[in-house]
């Protein structure tokens, strides 16, 4: 093998040195006009980007995979890599290859990761792109969220449950965790997040404090109201540190950090957010609440609505303020139309101004910013002059940004290009020097055109060409066939295969003037544009404020449009503990029913005095879950400031919403389904308040019937007896639970009415007072097309079971549960008991169907009866 094959080429040596610094990233290595990837990066890139994988140095020792793409396609390929979850280090040539004789200097200019991205093709306009950092202390966990594309920076701290909820709410694109907490993080918050692990030393209080104060240029963090958040500060410091690690140093738009004020907002834990399908659903095709209620027009509005939904208000006054604006906009349609008509012209000014701060902005985007700010002017005057106090304040606070708009207008050409190097960025009349050069370049061109014409005529050479190169400037090119017609005074400079190149005195004279004019024009344009961008930095905060206000206004206008389109009403919010909904509807389901099939509206009343807990029974598919969810969604909509899908609604402020569904969906988590269900429920019982709304859907379903009923019973009893008396809806198909209303005064029975036909059930979907006699599972099985044999067999087994275990018998058992604990009955050495114990221990409760459970119980009972008889 040749010795030289073993040696690294200088290029690969440079590559390896840079790659060693970014081992976790996919390195895009600029070579000439291409971005190349090598080795395992190339294998990955070729797969993700569907580009050809080749080999470099094939057959030699230094053989390595290679895949690349043209540098101008970066914007096409980069988002694909990032979306596939890659961290991408962009390594550029740091000097002009023409200027150096040795290998070109290269270095990483940006590290793009899922949580740190500017590229419009990576970002979703109506969603934030949050980078998150999580710091674990013994007692508490600190968290921060930072969106570099909008400049928002938030922090908080709390227990695992709270942090989990925030992670769910803000759904960050990337989560930073210390290496030592790697396992702890996945154990606590699961494996759904895109995580990156940083060295432990980054997670230090002093370092974080210093990073933050240095960035904000303040002595303390008092002004931000976060100085007492020890863990939160560390998490925030880590997020900022990460930005500098990924080479993001121009961060003037991250102008403030605020604390997520937990106490101001309705508490919903992650199960509730998931169960209510606010933003996403386990079913990818399902329509979520946000899909239905989002009538915003701007990107800022879309993002604001998500924030509002994540953090519903708890203060009656603030909520009412939003309702009043919506009411005003509905009553004054022209105002609504005027405002929405202007919002249509507003681009994503929040992200545009961030691009200004990071100087990643294009001339066309600056024009877009100006036009957006222009649309704000009429909005401001409409809002200021309207008859609603909150709207007026909003209008007052909008900045006209006159100076900024004027300056952009006089500096930039209205048709400015995306790339400043394309020319024509700066407006005419802005710079004398520029105008002069442009004139020169223009007249120079005309002069050359005229000269070409004249010389062609004079010499009779038809294929004359005038062009220039870097070596000897302007020249005239003559094809070989016309060589003999060349005038004597032309000086030959170069001979090509088919042509000769000449210079002339006249050309030399003009060259002095025009050569380089184009280049100088571009240099000046770049300089003036850069100056404009720097000058604009003083407006970052004003534009950010406008972005926030337009976001709010867009949301409120959206609520008005929503109320109008879907017939929502103004909800009354008060400080009572009552919840009274007349003709309530499910906002999502009602939009999805086939045309002509109406959604059946329902009334619901809950309070703490007489009707605290409602047991809702009814067959499967009758609409129990729909009633539960619509109740929560109506409260939620009301408290984010929207009107609600109902005929009428009076809502005593709710401060926590809990929902739990006893489902079998969790099997995939590998944990016992029932265990998960109980874990989730336990966290409710430990957190309830007097303003909580608790929705339990088929809790207890995850285990055998007896277990299930007992647990459901005990939970309901606990909620009833709890001094907070939380308002509760409990949907169950255990009709046995109806017995509870006899003992517990604030538990009331309702059922979702069905009409029983001969062999079938007709769903009426009306919630009516009273309990149910029995379950209807078999009817549903029939409707689902189960074979007739199975249905009739099931009916037989059911009636047999019902005979041998009347519901009274069962509920008596539960009621006298305490008495049953007479251990004296159990002589632990009794061989029968050992046998029963074995029987129970070998039963897999999680896979047992209710019928099997009853049969097993029957078996055990028979053993006992036999023993008694003996
Ligand atoms: N009020 C209503 N008006 C019209 N259709 C409804 C109404 N309520 C529910 N539905 C329809 O019935 C379907 C079943 O409702 P839902 O899931 O609430 O039933 P359920 O009683 O909770 O059933 P299960 O016990 O099987 O979960 C819904 O998907 C919806 O299409």
From TrEMBL:
Keywords: ATP-binding, DNA damage, DNA repair, DNA-binding, Nucleotide-binding. One of its GO terms (molecular function) is mismatched DNA binding. The keyword DNA repair applies. InterPro entries: DNA_mismatch_repair_MutS, DNA_mismatch_repair_MutS-lik_N, DNA_mismatch_repair_MutS/MSH, DNA_mismatch_repair_MutS_C, DNA_mismatch_repair_MutS_clamp, DNA_mismatch_repair_MutS_core, DNA_mismatch_repair_MutS_N, DNA_mismatch_repair_MutS_sf. One of its GO terms (biological process) is mismatch repair. The keyword DNA-binding applies. SUPFAM superfamilies: DNA repair protein MutS, domain I (SSF55271), DNA repair protein MutS, domain II (SSF53150), DNA repair protein MutS, domain III (SSF48334), P-loop containing nucleoside triphosphate hydrolases (SSF52540). Residues 692-708 form the DNA mismatch repair proteins mutS family domain. ATP binds at residues 618-625. One of its GO terms (cellular component) is cytosol. This protein is involved in the repair of mismatches in DNA. It is possible that it carries out the mismatch recognition step. This protein has a weak ATPase activity. HAMAP family: MutS. Belongs to the DNA mismatch repair MutS family. This is DNA mismatch repair protein MutS. It comes from Winogradskyella epiphytica. The lineage of its organism: Bacteria, Pseudomonadati, Bacteroidota, Flavobacteriia, Flavobacteriales.
């Amino acid at each position: 093998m040749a010795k030289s094959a073993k040696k690294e080429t200088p290029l690969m040596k440079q590559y390896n040195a840079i790659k060693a610094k970014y081992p976790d990233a996919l390195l895009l290595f600029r070579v000439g006009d291409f971005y190349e990837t090598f080795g395992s990066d190339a294998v990955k890139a070729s797969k993700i980007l569907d580009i050809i994988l080749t080999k470099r140095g094939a057959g030699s020792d230094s053989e390595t995979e290679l895949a690349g793409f043209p540098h101008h396609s970066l914007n096409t390929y980069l988002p694909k890599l990032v979306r596939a979850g890659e961290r991408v280090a962009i390594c550029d040539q740091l000097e002009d290859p023409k200027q150096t004789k040795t290998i070109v200097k290269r270095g990483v200019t940006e590290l793009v990761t899922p949580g740190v991205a500017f590229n419009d093709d990576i970002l979703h306009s109506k969603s934030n792109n949050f980078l998150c950092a999580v710091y674990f202390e013994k007692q508490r966990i600190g968290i921060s969220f930072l969106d570099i594309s909008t400049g928002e920076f938030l922090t908080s701290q709390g227990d695992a449950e709270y942090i989990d909820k925030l992670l769910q709410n803000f759904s960050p694109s990337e989560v930073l965790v210390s290496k030592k907490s790697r396992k702890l993080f996945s154990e606590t918050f699961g494996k759904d997040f895109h995580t990156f692990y940083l060295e432990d030393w980054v997670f230090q209080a002093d370092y974080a404090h210093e990073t933050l104060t240095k960035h904000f240029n303040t002595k303390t963090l008092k002004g931000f109201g976060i100085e007492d958040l020890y863990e939160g500060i560390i998490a925030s410091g880590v997020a900022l540190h990460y930005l500098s690690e990924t080479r993001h140093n121009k961060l003037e738009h991250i102008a403030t950090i605020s604390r997520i004020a937990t106490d101001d907002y309705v508490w919903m834990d992650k199960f509730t957010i998931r169960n209510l399908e606010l933003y996403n659903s386990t079913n990818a095709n399902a329509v979520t609440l946000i899909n239905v209620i989002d009538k915003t027009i701007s990107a800022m509005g879309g993002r604001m609505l998500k924030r509002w939904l994540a953090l519903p208000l708890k203060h009656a006054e603030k909520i009412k303020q939003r309702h009043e604006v919506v009411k005003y906009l509905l009553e004054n349609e022209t105002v609504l139309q005027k405002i929405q008509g202007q919002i249509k012209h507003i681009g994503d000014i929040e992200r545009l101004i961030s691009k200004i701060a990071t100087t990643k902005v294009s001339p066309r985007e600056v024009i877009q910013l100006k036009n957006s700010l222009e649309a704000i002017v009429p909005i401001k005057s409409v809002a200021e002059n309207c008859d609603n106090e909150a709207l007026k304040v909003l209008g007052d606070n909008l900045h006209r940004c006159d100076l900024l708009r004027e300056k952009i207008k006089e500096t930039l050409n209205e048709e400015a290009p995306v790339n400043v190097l394309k020319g024509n960025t700066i407006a005419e009349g802005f710079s004398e020097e520029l105008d002069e050069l442009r004139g020169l370049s223009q007249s120079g061109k005309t002069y050359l055109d005229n000269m070409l014409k004249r010389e062609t005529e004079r010499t009779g050479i038809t294929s004359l060409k005038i062009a220039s190169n870097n070596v000897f400037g302007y020249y005239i090119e003559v094809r070989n066939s016309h060589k003999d017609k060349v005038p004597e005074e032309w000086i030959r400079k170069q001979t090509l295969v088919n042509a000769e190149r000449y210079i002339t005195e006249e050309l030399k004279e003009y060259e002095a003037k025009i050569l380089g004019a184009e280049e100088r024009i571009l240099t000046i344009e770049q300089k003036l544009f850069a100056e404009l961008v720097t000058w604009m930095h003083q407006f970052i905060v004003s534009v950010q404020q406008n972005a926030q206000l337009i976001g709010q206004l867009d949301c409120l206008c959206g609520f008005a449009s929503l109320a109008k389109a879907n017939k929502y009403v103004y909800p009354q919010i008060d400080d009572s503990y009552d919840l009274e909904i007349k003709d309530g509807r499910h906002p999502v389901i009602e939009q999805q029913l086939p045309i002509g099939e109406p959604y059946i509206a329902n009334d619901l009343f809950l309070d703490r005095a007489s009707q605290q807990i409602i047991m809702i029974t009814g067959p499967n598919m009758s609409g129990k879950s729909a009633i539960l969810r619509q109740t929560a969604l109506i409260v939620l909509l009301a408290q984010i400031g929207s009107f609600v899908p109902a005929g009428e609604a009076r809502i005593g402020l709710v401060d926590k919403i809990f929902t739990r569904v006893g489902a079998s969906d969790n099997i995939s988590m590998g944990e016992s389904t029932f265990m998960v269900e109980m874990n989730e429920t336990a966290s409710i019982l430990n957190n309830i308040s007097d303003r909580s709304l608790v929705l339990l859907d088929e809790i207890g379903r995850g285990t055998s019937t007896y277990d299930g009923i007992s647990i459901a019973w005990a939970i309901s009893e606990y909620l009833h007896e709890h001094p907070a008396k939380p308002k509760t809806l409990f949907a169950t198909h255990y009709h046995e639970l109806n017995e509870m209303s006899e003992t517990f005064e604030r538990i009331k029975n309702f059922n979702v009415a069905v009409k029983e036909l001969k062999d079938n059930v007709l769903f009426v979907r009306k919630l009516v007072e009273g309990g149910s006699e029995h379950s209807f599972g078999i009817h549903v099985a029939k409707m689902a097309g189960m074979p007739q044999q199975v249905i009739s067999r099931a009916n037989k087994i059911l009636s047999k079971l019902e005979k041998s275990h009347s519901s009274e018998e069962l509920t008596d058992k539960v009621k006298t549960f305490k008495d049953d604990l007479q251990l004296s009955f159990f002589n632990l050495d009794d061989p029968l008991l050992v046998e029963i114990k074995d029987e129970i221990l070998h039963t897999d409760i999680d896979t047992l169907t209710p019928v099997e459970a009853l049969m097993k119980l029957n078996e055990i009972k028979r053993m006992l009866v036999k023993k008694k008889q003996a």
